[in-house]
Amino acid sequence: MKYLKRMKIHGFKKFVTFDIEFNKDTNILIGDNESGKSTILDAINLVLTQKYKNYDKYIVKELLNEDIVSKFKVDSKIENLPFIQIDLELQLDDVPNNGLYWGMTHGFEKNKSLFGIRFQCKIPDDIIVELMPLIELGQIPYEYYQMTWNTFQGDPYNTLKKPLNFLLIDNDNIDSNNSYNYYNKSLFVSNHNKELQSEIKSEFRNKINKVFSDLPINDVNEHQKFGVNEKRMIFENIITILDDNIPIENKGKGRENIIKTQIALDKNIGKIDILAIEEPENHLSFSNLKQMINEIKKQEGKQLIITTHESMIANSLNLKNILWIKDTEAESLKGISKDDSDFFLKTSDNNMLQYILSNKVILVEGPTEYMLIPKIFEKLYKKSIEDYKITIIDCGGVKYKRYLDIASKTNKKVVIITDNDKKQSNLDEKNTFNDTSSNIKIYMDDSLENWTWETCFYNLNKSKLEDLIEVKENADYLFHGIDYGKVLGKMLNNKVDTAYQMYKTDFDFKIPEYIKESLEWISEQF
Hints:
With 526 residues, the chain is of the alpha/beta class. The protein is 39% helix and 17% strand.
Protein backbone atom coordinates (compact mmCIF):
# COMPACT_ATOMS: atom_id res chain seq x y z
CA MET A 1 0.00 0.00 0.00
CA LYS A 2 1.20 3.49 -0.94
CA TYR A 3 0.19 6.34 1.32
CA LEU A 4 1.04 9.73 2.77
CA LYS A 5 2.89 9.42 6.09
CA ARG A 6 3.60 12.97 7.17
CA MET A 7 3.50 16.58 6.02
CA LYS A 8 5.32 19.68 7.23
CA ILE A 9 4.24 23.15 6.12
CA HIS A 10 5.96 26.50 6.36
CA GLY A 11 4.37 29.78 5.30
CA PHE A 12 1.38 28.42 3.38
CA LYS A 13 -1.96 30.21 3.75
CA LYS A 14 -3.23 29.67 7.30
CA PHE A 15 -0.04 28.13 8.65
CA VAL A 16 3.20 29.73 9.76
CA THR A 17 4.40 26.22 10.60
CA PHE A 18 2.41 23.02 10.77
CA ASP A 19 3.20 19.34 11.26
CA ILE A 20 0.81 16.44 10.74
CA GLU A 21 1.37 12.69 10.83
CA PHE A 22 -1.27 10.69 8.96
CA ASN A 23 -2.87 7.35 9.73
CA LYS A 24 -2.26 4.65 7.14
CA ASP A 25 -5.96 4.05 6.40
CA THR A 26 -8.50 6.60 7.63
CA ASN A 27 -7.91 10.21 8.70
CA ILE A 28 -10.72 12.42 10.02
CA LEU A 29 -9.59 16.06 10.14
CA ILE A 30 -11.58 18.15 12.59
CA GLY A 31 -11.17 21.71 13.82
CA ASP A 32 -12.93 25.03 14.22
CA ASN A 33 -13.93 27.07 11.21
CA GLU A 34 -10.80 28.50 9.56
CA SER A 35 -8.56 26.16 11.56
CA GLY A 36 -6.86 25.03 8.33
CA LYS A 37 -8.57 21.76 7.39
CA SER A 38 -9.09 22.85 3.78
CA THR A 39 -5.57 24.27 3.67
CA ILE A 40 -4.16 20.85 4.52
CA LEU A 41 -5.99 19.23 1.60
CA ASP A 42 -4.93 22.09 -0.67
CA ALA A 43 -1.30 21.63 0.38
CA ILE A 44 -1.36 17.90 -0.44
CA ASN A 45 -3.02 18.64 -3.76
CA LEU A 46 -0.50 21.38 -4.52
CA VAL A 47 2.46 19.08 -4.01
CA LEU A 48 1.18 15.88 -5.65
CA THR A 49 -0.62 17.40 -8.67
CA GLN A 50 1.47 20.58 -9.09
CA LYS A 51 -1.58 22.77 -8.71
CA TYR A 52 -0.86 26.48 -9.32
CA LYS A 53 2.07 25.58 -11.60
CA ASN A 54 0.61 27.48 -14.53
CA TYR A 55 -1.14 30.22 -12.57
CA ASP A 56 -0.22 33.90 -12.82
CA LYS A 57 2.63 34.77 -10.45
CA TYR A 58 0.34 36.97 -8.38
CA ILE A 59 -1.35 33.84 -7.02
CA VAL A 60 1.69 33.80 -4.72
CA LYS A 61 0.18 36.76 -2.84
CA GLU A 62 -2.82 34.60 -1.93
CA LEU A 63 -0.70 31.60 -0.94
CA LEU A 64 1.80 33.28 1.41
CA ASN A 65 1.01 33.34 5.12
CA GLU A 66 -0.25 36.79 6.17
CA ASP A 67 1.55 36.79 9.52
CA ILE A 68 4.91 36.15 7.85
CA VAL A 69 4.16 38.85 5.27
CA SER A 70 3.31 41.33 8.05
CA LYS A 71 6.50 40.49 9.93
CA PHE A 72 8.55 41.18 6.80
CA LYS A 73 6.88 44.56 6.23
CA VAL A 74 7.73 45.59 9.80
CA ASP A 75 11.32 44.31 9.57
CA SER A 76 12.26 44.14 5.88
CA LYS A 77 15.34 41.94 5.95
CA ILE A 78 16.33 39.27 3.43
CA GLU A 79 16.04 36.60 6.12
CA ASN A 80 12.43 37.68 6.75
CA LEU A 81 11.33 37.34 3.13
CA PRO A 82 8.17 35.21 3.03
CA PHE A 83 8.47 31.79 1.42
CA ILE A 84 6.53 28.54 1.26
CA GLN A 85 7.89 25.07 1.84
CA ILE A 86 5.82 21.90 1.99
CA ASP A 87 7.40 18.51 2.58
CA LEU A 88 5.48 15.29 2.03
CA GLU A 89 6.89 12.05 3.40
CA LEU A 90 5.51 9.05 1.49
CA GLN A 91 5.32 5.32 2.12
CA LEU A 92 6.62 3.80 -1.13
CA ASP A 93 8.09 0.43 -0.20
CA ASP A 94 7.93 -2.06 -3.11
CA VAL A 95 6.94 0.72 -5.56
CA PRO A 96 8.82 0.59 -8.90
CA ASN A 97 11.38 3.40 -9.27
CA ASN A 98 10.85 4.45 -5.66
CA GLY A 99 14.54 5.35 -5.52
CA LEU A 100 13.64 8.55 -7.40
CA TYR A 101 12.00 9.81 -4.18
CA TRP A 102 14.58 8.56 -1.66
CA GLY A 103 16.87 11.11 -0.05
CA MET A 104 17.65 13.53 2.78
CA THR A 105 16.54 16.83 1.23
CA HIS A 106 13.58 17.25 3.55
CA GLY A 107 12.56 18.84 6.85
CA PHE A 108 11.71 15.80 8.97
CA GLU A 109 14.71 14.02 10.48
CA LYS A 110 18.35 14.95 10.01
CA ASN A 111 20.73 12.40 8.56
CA LYS A 112 17.93 10.01 7.71
CA SER A 113 16.75 9.18 4.21
CA LEU A 114 13.03 9.02 3.48
CA PHE A 115 10.71 8.85 0.48
CA GLY A 116 9.13 12.18 -0.36
CA ILE A 117 8.50 15.33 -2.36
CA ARG A 118 9.32 18.94 -1.49
CA PHE A 119 7.52 22.01 -2.83
CA GLN A 120 9.06 25.46 -2.51
CA CYS A 121 7.85 28.90 -3.51
CA LYS A 122 10.48 31.56 -3.02
CA ILE A 123 12.73 34.10 -4.74
CA PRO A 124 15.83 32.36 -6.15
CA ASP A 125 18.98 33.20 -4.22
CA ASP A 126 20.84 34.36 -7.32
CA ILE A 127 18.51 37.31 -7.98
CA ILE A 128 17.86 38.53 -4.44
CA VAL A 129 20.77 41.02 -4.60
CA GLU A 130 19.21 42.68 -7.65
CA LEU A 131 15.94 43.09 -5.75
CA MET A 132 17.47 44.65 -2.62
CA PRO A 133 16.15 48.19 -3.34
CA LEU A 134 12.58 46.82 -3.32
CA ILE A 135 13.16 44.53 -0.36
CA GLU A 136 14.61 47.32 1.78
CA LEU A 137 11.43 49.31 1.15
CA GLY A 138 9.38 46.46 2.53
CA GLN A 139 7.98 45.52 -0.87
CA ILE A 140 7.49 41.88 -1.84
CA PRO A 141 8.34 41.28 -5.52
CA TYR A 142 5.74 38.57 -6.13
CA GLU A 143 6.51 38.37 -9.85
CA TYR A 144 10.02 37.04 -9.08
CA TYR A 145 8.86 34.11 -6.96
CA GLN A 146 9.44 30.66 -8.45
CA MET A 147 7.65 27.42 -7.65
CA THR A 148 9.70 24.23 -7.63
CA TRP A 149 8.81 20.60 -7.02
CA ASN A 150 11.65 18.21 -6.20
CA THR A 151 11.90 14.67 -4.90
CA PHE A 152 13.86 14.06 -1.71
CA GLN A 153 16.51 12.69 -4.10
CA GLY A 154 16.87 16.27 -5.33
CA ASP A 155 15.56 15.70 -8.85
CA PRO A 156 12.64 17.63 -10.37
CA TYR A 157 9.30 15.97 -9.59
CA ASN A 158 7.44 14.94 -12.73
CA THR A 159 3.72 14.24 -12.38
CA LEU A 160 3.97 11.90 -15.40
CA LYS A 161 5.94 9.61 -13.09
CA LYS A 162 3.99 10.34 -9.91
CA PRO A 163 4.38 7.60 -7.32
CA LEU A 164 0.72 7.53 -6.28
CA ASN A 165 -2.67 8.79 -7.45
CA PHE A 166 -4.47 11.47 -5.45
CA LEU A 167 -8.09 12.56 -5.88
CA LEU A 168 -9.77 15.44 -4.03
CA ILE A 169 -13.57 15.65 -3.88
CA ASP A 170 -14.72 19.08 -2.71
CA ASN A 171 -18.42 18.82 -1.88
CA ASP A 172 -18.74 22.50 -1.02
CA ASN A 173 -17.18 24.08 -4.10
CA ILE A 174 -19.47 26.91 -5.17
CA ASP A 175 -17.91 26.92 -8.63
CA SER A 176 -19.81 23.89 -9.84
CA ASN A 177 -18.35 23.78 -13.35
CA ASN A 178 -14.76 23.91 -12.16
CA SER A 179 -15.57 21.31 -9.50
CA TYR A 180 -16.98 18.92 -12.09
CA ASN A 181 -14.16 19.53 -14.56
CA TYR A 182 -11.51 18.92 -11.94
CA TYR A 183 -13.23 15.78 -10.70
CA ASN A 184 -13.80 14.34 -14.18
CA LYS A 185 -10.21 15.07 -15.23
CA SER A 186 -8.79 13.54 -12.07
CA LEU A 187 -10.85 10.40 -12.44
CA PHE A 188 -9.94 10.06 -16.11
CA VAL A 189 -6.22 10.43 -15.36
CA SER A 190 -6.29 7.98 -12.43
CA ASN A 191 -8.17 5.40 -14.50
CA HIS A 192 -5.88 5.45 -17.57
CA ASN A 193 -2.11 5.25 -17.86
CA LYS A 194 -0.30 7.98 -19.79
CA GLU A 195 -0.03 6.01 -23.03
CA LEU A 196 -3.73 5.17 -23.06
CA GLN A 197 -4.64 8.79 -22.30
CA SER A 198 -2.62 9.97 -25.30
CA GLU A 199 -4.16 7.31 -27.54
CA ILE A 200 -7.70 8.24 -26.50
CA LYS A 201 -7.15 11.97 -26.97
CA SER A 202 -5.45 11.49 -30.34
CA GLU A 203 -8.27 9.31 -31.62
CA PHE A 204 -10.80 11.83 -30.29
CA ARG A 205 -9.17 14.68 -32.23
CA ASN A 206 -8.91 12.63 -35.42
CA LYS A 207 -12.55 11.59 -35.28
CA ILE A 208 -13.77 15.12 -34.52
CA ASN A 209 -11.78 16.42 -37.49
CA LYS A 210 -13.21 13.69 -39.71
CA VAL A 211 -16.78 14.36 -38.60
CA PHE A 212 -16.31 18.07 -39.16
CA SER A 213 -14.82 17.56 -42.62
CA ASP A 214 -17.89 15.50 -43.60
CA LEU A 215 -20.30 18.27 -42.62
CA PRO A 216 -21.94 20.20 -45.50
CA ILE A 217 -20.38 23.54 -44.52
CA ASN A 218 -19.68 26.03 -47.31
CA ASP A 219 -16.24 27.61 -47.66
CA VAL A 220 -15.89 31.25 -46.72
CA ASN A 221 -14.20 32.10 -50.04
CA GLU A 222 -11.59 30.74 -52.41
CA HIS A 223 -8.82 30.90 -49.82
CA GLN A 224 -10.69 30.43 -46.53
CA LYS A 225 -12.84 27.71 -45.07
CA PHE A 226 -14.19 26.69 -41.66
CA GLY A 227 -12.20 24.31 -39.50
CA VAL A 228 -11.84 23.06 -35.93
CA ASN A 229 -9.87 25.10 -33.40
CA GLU A 230 -7.87 22.33 -31.75
CA LYS A 231 -6.79 24.63 -28.89
CA ARG A 232 -10.39 24.59 -27.72
CA MET A 233 -10.85 20.90 -28.35
CA ILE A 234 -9.61 19.68 -24.95
CA PHE A 235 -10.88 16.18 -24.24
CA GLU A 236 -10.81 16.46 -20.45
CA ASN A 237 -12.95 19.61 -20.52
CA ILE A 238 -15.89 17.97 -22.27
CA ILE A 239 -16.10 14.59 -20.57
CA THR A 240 -18.55 13.98 -17.73
CA ILE A 241 -19.72 11.06 -15.62
CA LEU A 242 -23.09 9.57 -16.58
CA ASP A 243 -25.29 7.94 -13.96
CA ASP A 244 -28.03 5.93 -15.73
CA ASN A 245 -27.21 8.05 -18.81
CA ILE A 246 -27.80 11.31 -16.90
CA PRO A 247 -24.81 13.63 -16.26
CA ILE A 248 -24.13 13.76 -12.52
CA GLU A 249 -24.20 17.58 -12.60
CA ASN A 250 -27.93 17.28 -13.40
CA LYS A 251 -28.66 15.08 -10.40
CA GLY A 252 -28.73 17.74 -7.67
CA LYS A 253 -26.05 18.56 -5.12
CA GLY A 254 -26.80 15.78 -2.66
CA ARG A 255 -27.02 13.09 -5.33
CA GLU A 256 -23.91 14.47 -7.01
CA ASN A 257 -21.89 14.09 -3.79
CA ILE A 258 -23.00 10.50 -3.33
CA ILE A 259 -22.25 9.51 -6.94
CA LYS A 260 -18.85 11.21 -7.03
CA THR A 261 -17.81 9.62 -3.75
CA GLN A 262 -19.09 6.17 -4.64
CA ILE A 263 -17.27 6.23 -7.99
CA ALA A 264 -14.04 7.30 -6.31
CA LEU A 265 -14.42 4.63 -3.64
CA ASP A 266 -15.13 1.82 -6.09
CA LYS A 267 -12.21 -0.62 -6.01
CA ASN A 268 -12.77 -1.57 -9.63
CA ILE A 269 -12.68 1.97 -11.04
CA GLY A 270 -9.37 3.79 -11.22
CA LYS A 271 -6.24 3.29 -9.21
CA ILE A 272 -6.61 5.95 -6.53
CA ASP A 273 -4.19 5.61 -3.64
CA ILE A 274 -5.24 8.68 -1.60
CA LEU A 275 -8.82 9.92 -1.62
CA ALA A 276 -9.51 13.25 0.08
CA ILE A 277 -13.10 14.32 0.70
CA GLU A 278 -13.98 17.85 1.80
CA GLU A 279 -16.94 17.77 4.19
CA PRO A 280 -18.87 14.79 2.76
CA GLU A 281 -21.92 15.73 4.86
CA ASN A 282 -22.68 18.81 2.74
CA HIS A 283 -26.09 18.73 1.00
CA LEU A 284 -26.87 15.23 2.31
CA SER A 285 -29.91 14.10 4.26
CA PHE A 286 -29.45 11.89 7.33
CA SER A 287 -30.20 8.67 5.40
CA ASN A 288 -27.95 9.59 2.47
CA LEU A 289 -25.12 10.49 4.84
CA LYS A 290 -25.50 7.10 6.53
CA GLN A 291 -25.33 5.48 3.09
CA MET A 292 -22.15 7.37 2.23
CA ILE A 293 -20.53 6.49 5.57
CA ASN A 294 -21.31 2.82 5.00
CA GLU A 295 -19.58 2.98 1.61
CA ILE A 296 -16.55 4.68 3.13
CA LYS A 297 -16.31 2.05 5.89
CA LYS A 298 -16.03 -0.74 3.32
CA GLN A 299 -12.82 0.62 1.84
CA GLU A 300 -9.52 -1.21 1.82
CA GLY A 301 -6.34 -0.36 -0.02
CA LYS A 302 -6.96 3.41 -0.12
CA GLN A 303 -5.88 6.07 2.30
CA LEU A 304 -8.84 8.30 3.18
CA ILE A 305 -8.43 11.90 4.35
CA ILE A 306 -11.75 13.47 5.31
CA THR A 307 -12.57 16.90 6.71
CA THR A 308 -15.82 17.19 8.63
CA HIS A 309 -17.98 19.07 11.12
CA GLU A 310 -20.31 16.10 11.53
CA SER A 311 -20.14 13.95 14.67
CA MET A 312 -21.86 11.06 12.93
CA ILE A 313 -18.88 10.75 10.57
CA ALA A 314 -16.33 10.96 13.39
CA ASN A 315 -18.18 8.39 15.50
CA SER A 316 -18.88 6.01 12.62
CA LEU A 317 -15.32 6.05 11.27
CA ASN A 318 -13.82 5.58 14.75
CA LEU A 319 -12.71 8.38 17.07
CA LYS A 320 -9.19 6.89 17.10
CA ASN A 321 -8.83 8.10 13.47
CA ILE A 322 -9.42 11.74 14.42
CA LEU A 323 -6.69 14.32 13.80
CA TRP A 324 -7.56 17.51 15.67
CA ILE A 325 -6.14 20.51 13.79
CA LYS A 326 -4.47 23.01 16.11
CA ASP A 327 -2.26 26.04 15.38
CA THR A 328 1.03 24.27 14.65
CA GLU A 329 0.22 20.56 14.66
CA ALA A 330 -2.46 17.92 14.45
CA GLU A 331 -3.28 16.08 17.65
CA SER A 332 -4.15 12.44 17.15
CA LEU A 333 -6.81 10.79 19.28
CA LYS A 334 -5.45 7.30 18.63
CA GLY A 335 -4.69 7.09 22.36
CA ILE A 336 -8.40 6.84 23.21
CA SER A 337 -9.19 3.44 24.67
CA LYS A 338 -10.59 0.84 22.30
CA ASP A 339 -13.53 0.32 24.63
CA ASP A 340 -14.54 4.00 24.42
CA SER A 341 -14.02 4.26 20.67
CA ASP A 342 -16.00 1.06 20.09
CA PHE A 343 -18.79 2.39 22.31
CA PHE A 344 -19.18 5.61 20.31
CA LEU A 345 -19.09 3.60 17.08
CA LYS A 346 -22.39 2.11 18.20
CA THR A 347 -24.07 5.33 19.32
CA SER A 348 -25.68 8.21 17.48
CA ASP A 349 -24.10 10.74 19.82
CA ASN A 350 -24.16 14.00 17.89
CA ASN A 351 -22.16 16.09 20.36
CA MET A 352 -18.75 14.45 20.09
CA LEU A 353 -17.05 16.95 17.75
CA GLN A 354 -18.54 19.85 19.67
CA TYR A 355 -17.09 18.28 22.81
CA ILE A 356 -13.63 17.73 21.34
CA LEU A 357 -13.40 21.22 19.83
CA SER A 358 -14.48 23.10 22.96
CA ASN A 359 -11.92 24.35 25.49
CA LYS A 360 -14.34 24.43 28.42
CA VAL A 361 -17.26 22.03 28.73
CA ILE A 362 -20.11 21.43 31.16
CA LEU A 363 -21.41 17.88 30.86
CA VAL A 364 -24.93 17.24 32.09
CA GLU A 365 -26.99 14.08 32.05
CA GLY A 366 -30.34 15.36 30.83
CA PRO A 367 -32.37 18.08 29.08
CA THR A 368 -33.46 19.67 32.38
CA GLU A 369 -29.94 20.70 33.33
CA TYR A 370 -29.17 21.57 29.69
CA MET A 371 -32.11 23.99 29.69
CA LEU A 372 -31.60 25.64 33.07
CA ILE A 373 -27.81 25.90 33.56
CA PRO A 374 -27.39 28.69 30.96
CA LYS A 375 -30.20 30.58 32.77
CA ILE A 376 -28.48 30.03 36.14
CA PHE A 377 -25.12 31.11 34.73
CA GLU A 378 -26.59 34.34 33.39
CA LYS A 379 -28.20 35.06 36.73
CA LEU A 380 -24.92 34.56 38.60
CA TYR A 381 -22.51 36.25 36.17
CA LYS A 382 -24.72 38.67 34.21
CA LYS A 383 -23.23 37.23 31.03
CA SER A 384 -23.97 34.22 28.88
CA ILE A 385 -22.11 30.92 28.88
CA GLU A 386 -21.05 31.72 25.32
CA ASP A 387 -19.38 34.95 26.52
CA TYR A 388 -17.11 32.75 28.65
CA LYS A 389 -16.54 30.36 25.71
CA ILE A 390 -18.12 27.50 27.65
CA THR A 391 -20.02 24.70 25.92
CA ILE A 392 -22.79 22.78 27.65
CA ILE A 393 -23.42 19.25 26.40
CA ASP A 394 -26.21 16.87 27.27
CA CYS A 395 -24.77 13.36 27.52
CA GLY A 396 -28.26 11.90 27.23
CA GLY A 397 -28.16 8.17 27.79
CA VAL A 398 -24.37 8.09 27.45
CA LYS A 399 -22.69 7.95 30.84
CA TYR A 400 -20.35 10.90 31.40
CA LYS A 401 -17.47 8.53 32.22
CA ARG A 402 -17.27 7.70 28.51
CA TYR A 403 -16.18 11.29 27.92
CA LEU A 404 -13.48 11.40 30.57
CA ASP A 405 -10.82 9.50 28.64
CA ILE A 406 -11.24 11.86 25.69
CA ALA A 407 -11.02 14.88 27.99
CA SER A 408 -7.78 13.62 29.49
CA LYS A 409 -6.26 13.06 26.04
CA THR A 410 -7.19 16.57 24.83
CA ASN A 411 -6.37 18.49 28.04
CA LYS A 412 -9.68 20.35 28.11
CA LYS A 413 -11.38 21.78 31.17
CA VAL A 414 -14.51 19.78 31.96
CA VAL A 415 -17.17 20.00 34.66
CA ILE A 416 -19.55 17.11 35.22
CA ILE A 417 -22.79 18.07 36.98
CA THR A 418 -24.55 14.94 38.14
CA ASP A 419 -26.68 13.40 40.90
CA ASN A 420 -25.51 11.42 43.92
CA ASP A 421 -28.50 9.03 43.55
CA LYS A 422 -28.62 8.52 47.34
CA LYS A 423 -25.32 6.61 47.22
CA GLN A 424 -22.46 7.44 49.55
CA SER A 425 -20.18 5.53 47.18
CA ASN A 426 -20.88 8.14 44.48
CA LEU A 427 -19.85 10.93 46.86
CA ASP A 428 -16.69 9.06 47.86
CA GLU A 429 -15.81 8.41 44.22
CA LYS A 430 -16.38 12.08 43.38
CA ASN A 431 -14.09 13.26 46.18
CA THR A 432 -11.32 10.81 45.27
CA PHE A 433 -11.50 11.76 41.60
CA ASN A 434 -11.42 15.53 42.24
CA ASP A 435 -8.41 15.18 44.53
CA THR A 436 -6.35 13.67 41.73
CA SER A 437 -7.69 15.49 38.64
CA SER A 438 -6.65 19.03 37.68
CA ASN A 439 -8.64 19.67 34.49
CA ILE A 440 -11.78 17.60 35.14
CA LYS A 441 -14.07 18.02 38.17
CA ILE A 442 -17.25 16.22 39.22
CA TYR A 443 -19.92 18.14 41.14
CA MET A 444 -22.95 16.74 42.99
CA ASP A 445 -24.77 17.73 46.18
CA ASP A 446 -23.03 16.42 49.30
CA SER A 447 -26.30 15.58 51.03
CA LEU A 448 -27.91 12.23 50.23
CA GLU A 449 -31.24 13.91 50.93
CA ASN A 450 -30.63 16.05 47.84
CA TRP A 451 -30.14 13.01 45.66
CA THR A 452 -31.19 14.52 42.33
CA TRP A 453 -31.39 17.92 40.58
CA GLU A 454 -35.12 18.28 41.30
CA THR A 455 -34.85 17.55 45.03
CA CYS A 456 -32.01 20.08 45.36
CA PHE A 457 -34.12 22.86 43.89
CA TYR A 458 -37.29 21.82 45.66
CA ASN A 459 -35.71 21.74 49.12
CA LEU A 460 -34.22 25.22 48.58
CA ASN A 461 -37.27 26.77 46.89
CA LYS A 462 -40.20 24.84 48.36
CA SER A 463 -42.72 27.69 48.71
CA LYS A 464 -41.94 29.21 45.32
CA LEU A 465 -42.23 25.86 43.52
CA GLU A 466 -45.43 24.97 45.39
CA ASP A 467 -46.95 28.13 43.91
CA LEU A 468 -45.46 27.62 40.44
CA ILE A 469 -46.12 23.93 39.76
CA GLU A 470 -49.79 23.08 39.33
CA VAL A 471 -50.96 19.70 40.62
CA LYS A 472 -54.30 17.94 40.67
CA GLU A 473 -55.78 17.08 44.02
CA ASN A 474 -56.83 13.56 43.00
CA ALA A 475 -53.70 12.77 40.91
CA ASP A 476 -51.09 10.18 41.90
CA TYR A 477 -47.54 11.56 41.63
CA LEU A 478 -45.59 8.58 42.95
CA PHE A 479 -42.04 8.32 41.60
CA HIS A 480 -40.78 4.73 41.34
CA GLY A 481 -43.56 3.82 43.76
CA ILE A 482 -42.48 6.34 46.42
CA ASP A 483 -44.53 9.32 47.57
CA TYR A 484 -42.32 12.44 47.63
CA GLY A 485 -45.27 14.81 47.81
CA LYS A 486 -47.34 16.08 44.91
CA VAL A 487 -45.14 18.94 43.66
CA LEU A 488 -41.80 17.17 43.94
CA GLY A 489 -43.43 14.02 42.60
CA LYS A 490 -44.63 15.93 39.55
CA MET A 491 -41.18 17.49 39.08
CA LEU A 492 -39.56 14.03 39.15
CA ASN A 493 -42.13 12.54 36.75
CA ASN A 494 -42.24 15.53 34.38
CA LYS A 495 -38.69 16.85 34.50
CA VAL A 496 -38.58 18.71 31.20
CA ASP A 497 -42.05 20.26 31.48
CA THR A 498 -41.50 21.56 35.02
CA ALA A 499 -37.99 22.78 34.11
CA TYR A 500 -39.52 24.76 31.26
CA GLN A 501 -42.00 26.34 33.69
CA MET A 502 -39.04 27.39 35.83
CA TYR A 503 -37.22 28.68 32.76
CA LYS A 504 -40.13 30.94 31.78
CA THR A 505 -40.22 32.71 35.16
CA ASP A 506 -37.98 35.58 36.25
CA PHE A 507 -35.89 32.77 37.74
CA ASP A 508 -35.56 34.18 41.21
CA PHE A 509 -34.61 30.77 42.61
CA LYS A 510 -31.98 29.91 45.21
CA ILE A 511 -29.16 28.00 43.53
CA PRO A 512 -27.68 24.83 45.08
CA GLU A 513 -24.13 25.38 46.29
CA TYR A 514 -22.62 22.56 44.23
CA ILE A 515 -23.93 24.17 41.04
CA LYS A 516 -22.51 27.56 42.06
CA GLU A 517 -19.14 25.94 42.79
CA SER A 518 -19.08 24.10 39.47
CA LEU A 519 -19.83 27.25 37.47
CA GLU A 520 -17.25 29.25 39.41
CA TRP A 521 -14.55 26.64 38.67
CA ILE A 522 -15.35 26.32 34.95
CA SER A 523 -15.39 30.12 34.58
CA GLU A 524 -11.85 30.55 35.85
CA GLN A 525 -8.96 30.97 33.42
CA PHE A 526 -7.38 27.70 32.29
